[in-house]
Amino acid sequence: MRRFSKLSGFLALLLAFTATLLPAGPPAQKAVILATTTSTQDSGLLDELIPMFEAQTGYSVKTIAVGSGQAIAMGKRGEADVLLVHSPDAEKGLLVDGGGVNRRLVMHNDFILVGPANDPAGLAKLSTIQCLQRIAAAKALFMSRGDNSGTHAMELKLWKAAGVAPDGQPWYQQSGLGMGQTLAIAAEKKAYTLSDRGTYLALRKKLGLPILHEGDAALMNVYHVIEVNPARFPKVNAAGGRAFADFMVSKAVQNRIKDFGIATYGSPLFFPDAGLPEVEAGRR
Fold first, then answer.
1. 3-class secondary structure, 47
2. SS3 for 15?
3. CATH topology of domain 31-107+222-275
């Protein structure tokens, strides 16, 4: 018995020593559910960043690319771990509701109005509000996403500012789809549409839709990362969501965002904003 006891003790010590030589195991919850807007997917940005995150952390990412409104609704129901979205009013509502925490600036680009090359509504040299008023007056075909996305929310805000109620008008159509698909439909139908610049630049060669209006301060498009609140939803992968949010605002990733798109499209698709005060978002 004494010999067996010594052998058992030796084996226990050996196993303990061996365990110290092995690499640390993967996170307890390996999968991170990211709910995000279609623009981050359609632009190709996530195709570059997610493999970096997975390699650095050991987490795997399940990306659900929908409109920002749908992504935020998932956060309200605890169906995601982290959000990357661009609908400021809805984002603030999520925080007030208690479904999201630690909202941080990530990046910005801007919205643009694109349309047929012959520009039947004549948008040249007009303000954003005048452009929409002119489209309505000309009854020129306009393709809306109609999907409660951040882009759709911005579009509705602009129509309201223009004093135009487009719903129900024959010239106003809704795709109910993401940005890339809506741009494709607008190109096919020779319609106007509002797009984020990143998705447009990524698809520009396939579309044949020129930019007809840009540069208005009212068209700024700011993205935030928000962690889903583990105090409200104990089953969320809080550590994984926080790791992804920290990753998005890290210096290395912000540098990647700054350069993303230049080699392919001649200009960046997004501009990094992490660490800036909220009032300075998109001002660089």
1. helix
2. helix
3. D-Maltodextrin-Binding Protein; domain 2 (3.40.190)
Torsion of CA 10, 14, 16, 22, to 10 degrees: -170
CA distances from 125 to 183, 187, 214 (A): 23, 22, 10
Give CA 252 to chain center in angstroms.
Answer: 19
Return d(Cα 230, Cα 194) in angstroms, integer. 35
Identify the CATH class of 110-219: alpha beta
Q: Locate all alpha helices (DSSP H) within the chain, ordered by sequence.
A: 2-21, 38-42, 45-57, 68-76, 88-97, 128-138, 150-162, 179-189, 197-207, 238-248, 251-259, 262-265
What string of DSSP letters covers 137-155?
A: HHT--EEE--SS-HHHHHH
**Residue-wise pLDDT tens for the chain (284 aa)?**
444 444 455 444 444 444 444 444 445 668 999 999 988 988 899 999 999 999 999 999 999 999 888 999 999 999 999 999 998 889 999 999 999 999 999 999 999 999 999 999 999 889 999 999 999 999 999 999 999 888 999 999 999 999 999 999 999 999 999 999 999 999 999 999 999 998 999 898 889 899 999 998 889 999 999 999 999 999 999 999 999 999 999 999 999 999 999 998 888 999 999 998 875 665 55
Residue spans in the chain of domains classed CATH 3.40.190.10: 31-107+222-275, 110-219
